Amino acid sequence: MSLIIDNLHLAREGIPHLDGVTAEFGHGSITAVIGRTLAGKTTLTRAIAGLQAVDGGSLRLDGKPFGGTPAWRRDVAMVYQQFINYPHLSVFENVAFPLRKRKVAAGEIARRVTAALEMVGLASFGTRRPTELSGGQQQRVALARALVRRAGILLLDEPLVNLDYKLREQLREEFRGLLKDQTGAIVIYNTTEPSEAMMLGNRIVVMHEGKVLQAGAPAEIFDRPASVQVARIVNDPPMNIFSGIIENGAILLAGGLRIPVAEHLASLPPGSYRFGIRAGELRVGGEGDASGKVTFSEVSGSETFVYAQAPFGDAVLQIEGVHAMANGTQLSISVAPDRLFAFSAEADGALLAAPVTGDAAWPK
Amino acid sequence: MPGLYSSLKYLAVALWSVFVVTPLLWALTTSFKTSNAVTGGPTYLPWLQYQPSLDGWRSLFGGAGGIDIVKPYMDSLIVTGSASLISIVLGTLAAYGLSRFDYRAGFIKNTDIVFFFISQRIMPPIVLAIPFFLMLQFLGLLDSKIGLILVYIALLLPIAVWIMVDFFDGVPRQIDEMAMLDGCTPFEAFLRVVLPNSLPGILVASMFCLVFGWNDFFFAFTLTFTDTQLLPVAVVALNSSVTPWWSLSASALISVAPLILCAFLVERLLSRGTLAGAIR
User: Fold this and answer.
1) Which residue, A235, A181, A243, is CA-closest to A206?
2) Which of A127, A154, B133, B178 is deepest in the core (most CB within 10 A)?
């Protein structure tokens, strides 16, 4: 019993928005759909909500086709990326709106709306107008309205993307608690951020250019990304990818860097590959394998992202702590052989070998 | 220098107020003057500079050498009011459709349809006089309120559509979609969510329609003869070989009164709390 999406197609003016999307979303679990902007996430949620007609494919809910049901008869609640509320109604009436439309008894409405507002921490804001609230509060109102209905399908389309960093972190925590309580509902959460997907999703679907690239448990996707594309999407900053060859029992990267073949890559035959390594697993300092030049660096929270030119290609490094790195600084970079992913050099960039898991740096 | 800025602001407002109010005050004093007082040079203060008289006002209500302004006044109210109301209702519905749904007939798309509406107002109105005359004649509606209402709808609808399309384009579509997901049919979404948030636009469009309709002289003049007479035509009929400035001033004042009332009302509504929070 689940929501099954089968081979959805949608193209507008020759640009495919959904290109044969097939996926399954189960009751009582949160599925995070991760993909970059324009990956087709929003189009997919709009198709599920009935707000977007598709060119081909079918939707089935618990075995029954529901592609033909109009949006207002689908049991779907949605939270938009923009903070969408009814500006002419008070916060209380905003949340009560879907219940009033469904002719729920007045006492029941008062009880459920109050509970929903309490849940999102806006119990004392019932009489205010949404436009008088801050962005985070407005999005909480929208969430309360989506939750109060106890809809069978709950869609969240990048609900935190328009909030500032601090508030995003805070709401993400709150969302996790609130969404876990939606027992029995099919929850689909769109995001561009790997950490959000990993934290909220029981399952993850990776989308790119209208296609589903991979679907599975968060650990599975993080530890064994099916392709170069997935590896870049589910890591932030994106995984570093370098071209190289395996010959004579060693990996030869561009610029003449030679590193030993670790055990997990031992079975790969000699030839061309693409090698991937996470930004946090490139080591800096000491007797490095190669020297790189800093082109740009930024501090994010308690970490520093350093963009450097290395002989084997442009690399992003994620270093613990706050470091001031002037552009042009020379860095000594070492590549840990046991942390390398090997991908096919072909266009599909399929995963051939992944490091042994265990101490992988999970995004927080 | 906030002090200087706000002083300048008030000075500008004061100057503008003088500019706006002076003609009205001028008309007010003139309406209480007699023939001699009008032609005897500029005077402003009643009793001191001239002897006020009610002749000008009496002439509007069947007094000597005057007209009975009540009937044309009512006719104007009925015609302008009905035409504006129908234009706003039809125009709002049409504008919502044009703003939200894609229409296509060959190469004609939504923007072309909107332009078609606006283009009705690009033509000089005089071009329409003969076609309107012939059409109303064919329908037997010449010299009737219904005929004028139809003509005014044709003239006011483009204004309503134009303003409302622009307004609806500024209301996020996601609001309609949200209402549909909350269980509203598309029409209910329009009625219960989009419309309440569009009141400012509707007020502005209504104001425009009322002003255009109320002030029209040309069609009111060419399409009516004796049975129906609208206010602007009746006012002009006051003018004979001697221009009765006192009667004209009085009629000008009561003609403009409903519009001033409307303007105040709209201003109040637009700035009041009920619409605060609505989408601009």
Assistant:
1) A235
2) B178
| pTM assigned to the model | 0.82
List the single residue in B with minimal CA-CA distance to A132. Answer: B277
C-alpha to C-alpha distances, A314 to A239, A290, B63, B218, nearest whole angstrom:
11, 12, 95, 75
Distance CA A276, CA A272 (A): 13
Q: What is the pLDDT of residue B122?
A: 85
What residues in B contact A80, CB-CB < 8 Å?
174, 178
Tokens (6 digits) for A268: 């790969």
A98 contacts on B by Cβ (under 8 Å): 182-183
A71/B180 Cβ within 8 A: yes
Contact B181 A71 (CB under 8 A): yes
Using CB atoms within 10 A of its CB, is residue A248 exposed (0-12), middle (13-18) or buried (19+)? Answer: exposed
Q: What is the mean pLDDT of chain A?
A: 89
Helices (H), chain A: 41-49, 91-101, 106-119, 135-148, 165-180, 194-200, 218-223, 228-233
Cβ atoms A36, A208 nearer than 8 A: yes
**Contact A98/B177, CB-based, under 8 Å?**
no
Query: How high is the ipTM of this complex?
Result: 0.83
Question: What residues form DSSP beta bridges with A26?
Answer: A2
Specify the DSSP element, H or E, that contains A5: strand A2-12
**In A, which residues are within 8 Å of B202 by CB distance?**
none
For residue range B167-198, list pLDDT tens digits in order. Answer: 999 888 999 999 999 999 999 999 999 999 88
Question: Which residue type occupies A2?
Answer: S
- Determine, for residues B277 and A130 on separate chains, whether the beta-carbon distance falls below 8 Å: yes
pLDDT in tens, B226-241: 888 899 998 888 887 7
**Per-residue model confidence as pLDDT tens digits over B105-121:** 889 898 898 888 888 88
